[in-house]
Write a structure and sequence with these properties.
Number of domains: 2
Largest sheet: 9 strands, mixed
Structural class: alpha/beta
CATH architecture of the largest domain: Alpha-Beta Barrel
Mean pLDDT: 95
Shape: globular
CATH superfamily of the largest domain: Aldolase class I
Radius of gyration: 21 Å
Helix content: 25-40%
Number of strands: 13
Strand order of the largest sheet: 7-1-2-8-9-10-11-12-13
Bound molecules: iron/sulfur cluster
CATH topology of the largest domain: TIM Barrel
Distance between the termini: 38 Å
Strand content: 15-25%
Low-confidence stretches: none
Length: 314
């Protein structure tokens, strides 16, 4: 049976396309955006996470100690809990952990938990059909997102195809960093592409995100040329892509595609990814900056409006 690796399904979403939507989040992404607000989506396999706020501490609980076949769980240093009381938390050595899940199974408080579940298309459809009345009342539908949902092409295709059978509006939230043939296959079943454009400079894109941007830009043009609808999303990241010069490059690129664009959304950088990154217990530091000011966001919006594009600050 066809399954996808999901890390979440969220109902009542109003961020991922028109109306009230149910968003299906797939795990795994070929990009490595340092500001990623869903770092748990980046790796393809199921992963161990730890949520500090749920942990009872080793003195009160300690059920995760001594269950790890790799001896990856040890006692961390003395710390303080949310009330400022002393507590000792477990520490997981992620260089040794192989995500077997034994410690998560032992953790009754679900502080340790596994992120990533193999889910069938039927299970997803069952949930979507339950939510369908909300879609009909609000002009909403289903958004399939990630990670990069098109890196699980058969599963994503089948969810989209089944949604169209059920007359459910569909949106694909994509980085665009996939072969054109993959997009071409889902195009007839996709009412809207939520299409991320993170950076117009390919060398910078590669340096910061790990891959170049030519394929992403080419696919964006091809979607427009092949009758697809686009909602362009520009994460506006301080010191990366927020300059006037950079936004002129966005404007020049998008102006010829404007008949295919429903809206260009500017997404101001935020720090929501920081706490999720901590849950993954990785040593690498996450990018942290102050969010762009309202004045800067408004200036960039006005700049793109000058190119005749429909623009919103999200
Ligand atoms: S998930 Fe990792 S830390 Fe937990 S028991 Fe398995 S190997 Fe050990
Ligand atoms: S089993 Fe869970 S709640 Fe108990 S100490 Fe370990 S992580 Fe914390």
């Amino acid at each position: 049976m066809l399954t996808g690796k999901l890390y979440d399904i969220q109902g009542f979403s109003v961020q991922d396309g028109p109306g009230i939507r149910t968003t299906v989040f797939l795990k795994g992404c070929p990009l490595r955006c340092p500001w990623c607000h869903s770092p748990e989506s980046q790796e393809f396999p199921t992963e161990l996470n730890w949520m500090k706020i749920r942990c009872l501490g080793l003195d009160a609980c300690g059920a995760c100690l001594n269950v790890c076949p790799k001896n990856a769980v040890s006692a961390g240093p003395e710390s303080t809990d949310a009330k400022g009381d002393p507590i000792r938390y477990p520490e997981v050595d992620k260089t040794v952990c192989d995500d077997c899940g034994a410690c998560a199974k032992a953790c009754k408080a679900t502080a340790l938990y596994m992120c990533g579940t193999d889910t069938t298309v039927d299970e997803v459809m069952h949930r979507l059909l339950r939510d369908k009345p909300f879609f009909e009342d609000s002009g909403g539908g289903m958004t399939i997102s990630g990670g990069e949902c098109l890196c699980q092409p058969d599963f994503t295709f089948e969810v989209l195809r089944r949604c169209k059978e059920e007359d459910i509006h569909t949106a694909v939230d994509t980085t665009g960093f996939v072969r054109w043939e993959v997009i071409q296959r889902v195009l007839p079943y996709t009412d809207l592409f939520l299409y991320d454009l993170k950076c117009m400079d390919s060398a910078l894109h590669r340096q910061v995100i790990g891959v170049p941007n030519e394929l992403i830009l080419e696919n964006c043009v091809k979607i427009a040329e092949n009758g697809g609808r686009l909602q362009i999303r520009i994460p506006t990241i301080p010191m990366f892509n927020d300059s006037r010069e950079h936004f002129d490059r966005y404007g020049e690129f998008l102006r010829p595609l404007k008949d295919a664009i429903d809206v260009v959304q500017l997404l101001p950088y935020h720090k929501l990814g920081v706490s999720k990154h901590e849950r993954l217990m990785k040593k690498e530091k996450i990018f942290v900056a102050e969010p762009p000011s309202d004045a800067l966001m408004e200036a960039r919006r006005d700049q793109l409006l000058g190119y005749g594009l429909p623009v919103q600050i999200h």
